[in-house]
Amino acid sequence: MYSITISGIEIKIVKKRIKNMYIRVFPPNGIVQVSAPVDYDDETIRMFALFRIGWIKRQIQSFENQPRQTKRQYVSGENIYLWGKRYRLDVIFSSSKNDIKVTGERITLQVRTQSTIQQRENIVNEWYRKLLKAEIPDLIEKYQKIIGVIASDWHVKNMRTKWGTCNTDKQKIWINLQLAKKSRDCLDYVIVHELVHLIEKNHTEKFTQYMNQFYPDWRVAREKLNNEVLDFMEPIENVD
């Protein structure tokens, strides 16, 4: 990977074994990346990006204007998200065991009296992980049957740069922990995206055809994923 600069905007260049170039602007900070075939020269890539500089600037501006949350302290009164819905966080300090409950419009976090911010964050993240692990197996089974592919294994991982990723050689997929905060159809979309990669490694025209076939509303889900409120450490739009 290397970078070029056009109109004051740094653009990261990644060369892959693909047939066509494509460009992405990733939230939350508007990082720009061009993926290009390995045999494309720098001038061809530069002209490709230059031709789209207006669109790039609009995308960066839209991310700058997008609402996002400040870094959490995990104290009462903060907002917390679950499956795309906003809840008010109530924190109860107790000598009893750690616990999280959802009641109406509130999520109650019960923690030890001397707990730190990091400890409270870890408790919430493990809760998200548990919820995802309860949802994912049925979804993977459902879409494996639809797509006609089998993942050898799957994992939940807290990632800052991808909503999902996969190892096509080992047929494994990883799902981002942060998806527990997003609408449920966003989780479907990412799972389908990764499973499709097991039969079509790159983001080719054939890959898009598979997405259209196996999850026709994938563009709607992707748009929703990109437009929901950004968390402080939000992962970028990318699914790999």
Automatic annotation (TrEMBL):
Q: Where is the YgjP-like metallopeptidase domain?
A: 19-227
Q: Matching InterPro entries, A to Z?
A: UTP_pyrophosphatase-like, YgjP-like_metallopeptidase
**Record's Gene3D superfamilies?**
Metalloproteases ('zincins'), catalytic domain (3.30.2010.10)
Q: Per its UniProt record, what PANTHER family does this chain match?
A: UNCHARACTERIZED PROTEIN YGJP, UTP PYROPHOSPHATASE
Q: What is this protein called?
A: M48 family metallopeptidase
